[in-house]
Amino acid sequence: MSGLPRSFRHIQMLAKQQSHTLTLGQLMRSTRSDSNSLIRQGQWLRNQLPIRFARRLDEFLQLPYLVVHNQNIKQVFDIYVDTFETVSDFPNIITDRDEAAFADLIRQQLEKHQQVARLIAEGYREVRHMYPHLRLDSFLDRLFIARISARILMENYIRMRTPAEGFIGVVQKELSPLQVFQELSNEITRLTEAIYGVAPDIEFRGNLTCTLDYIPRHVQFMGQELLKNAVRATTERHKPRDGPGIGFASRSERIPKVAVEVQKGDVHVIIKISDQGGGMPKRIQEEAWQYGWTTADHEEEDDPYSGGTWRKELAGYGFGLPLTRLHAQYFGGDVFMQALPGHGTDMYLLLNHLKEGSPSTEEDDPSTALTETENRSVNAP
Ligand SMILES: Nc1ncnc2c1ncn2[C@@H]1O[C@H](COP(=O)(O)OP(=O)(O)O)[C@@H](O)[C@H]1O
Ligand SMILES: [Mg+2]
């Protein structure tokens, strides 16, 4: 890195401070669009976000030189410094006008942070290409947990300014998992056909009318990663060997379906994604949860005609499974895999209802747990 940020001392100081925790239930209850609530929430974020970003920066500064020197990871570091500095430089929020200006700033920062996951994945891949034994799993876990939490706080604040029917801030009430998965299926099928010339059909079963209160972006993210994996494994295993295009006419006969089954349990909504993509050997079943572990190759990447970038949309960074697990566990859910080597894989995604007053929004609170882990991690040996 070319020198420390100008705010280095300030970062170090704030990184040692205790941040306030907030349960999702508390956040939902404070989600109101009157001017006082907005000013209060704006002021709270203005004080709290710098502490959270200072912690991340403090950890970045402790990474090996070769990691932060990577241009993609450096870019993420710069985004975090920028957020830290612009938010902590923002004056006190007193009037509606101050608050509106602060909301603009948060909106811009959210926009900048959108590319963070891709930049980290790309950077980590490059670094590990040179140093295959380097592993940053716990750093990445903490980075992404903090990212999930900061984005919820920031997005909820932006959304509470313009309340939408059926939403409490970022949480959508009675979201239909079926609808989310159907939309994802269309997109992934199109992408897969563009890459391979064929794609399996995706079939829906179970309790198709079931709904749940959840953050739609999270359901979309997890669903997308699991579906992409199932579709890719199935297509790789069953695609016609004699070149693309030929399978089009009879794709459903040649390629086994991917099944998505939705069920409503007492505590969870359970989404099971089954494929006949060959599964994975036992050893790999555990490794697949590590950041950067992938069987997608990048060999033809430099060939502009190979569709390397198209392929990367489908797989390639090895971040899908670990990030899906992080998102599911964030609200007390989970994801597990039952892979039958030589046949196929069942993935189970368990999601808690995010109802105000339920354990997933009050007791098993992620941001409490998060702050505890964060407090432990600061300058930990
Ligand atoms: N449904 C599945 N069937 C077979 N292999 C899978 C399945 N899901 C994941 N995998 C294996 O786990 C690896 C890691 O998956 P993931 O974390 O999503 O990263 P990526 O898809 O970028 O490779 C994949 O490359 C693949 O080898
Ligand atoms: Mg994947």
From TrEMBL:
InterPro entries: AK/P_DHK_N_sf, BCDHK/PDK_N, BCKD/PDK, HATPase_C_sf, HATPase_dom, His_kinase_dom
Cellular component GO terms, alphabetical: mitochondrial matrix
Keyword hit for Membrane: no
Gene Ontology molecular functions: ATP binding; pyruvate dehydrogenase (acetyl-transferring) kinase activity
Transmembrane domains' residue ranges: none
Domain (Histidine kinase) ranges: 225-355
Uppermost EC category: transferase
EC numbers on record: 2.7.11.-
Any matching Pfam family: HATPase_c
Record region (Disordered): 356-381
GO biological process: regulation of glucose metabolic process
Record keywords, A-Z: ATP-binding, Kinase, Mitochondrion, Nucleotide-binding, Phosphoprotein, Transferase
PROSITE patterns reported in the protein's UniProt record: HIS_KIN
Main location: mitochondrion
PANTHER family (alphabetical): [3-METHYL-2-OXOBUTANOATE DEHYDROGENASE [LIPOAMIDE]] KINASE, MITOCHONDRIAL (PTHR11947:SF20), PYRUVATE DEHYDROGENASE KINASE (PTHR11947)
Membership in a protein family: Belongs to the PDK/BCKDK protein kinase family.
Protein name in the entry: Protein-serine/threonine kinase
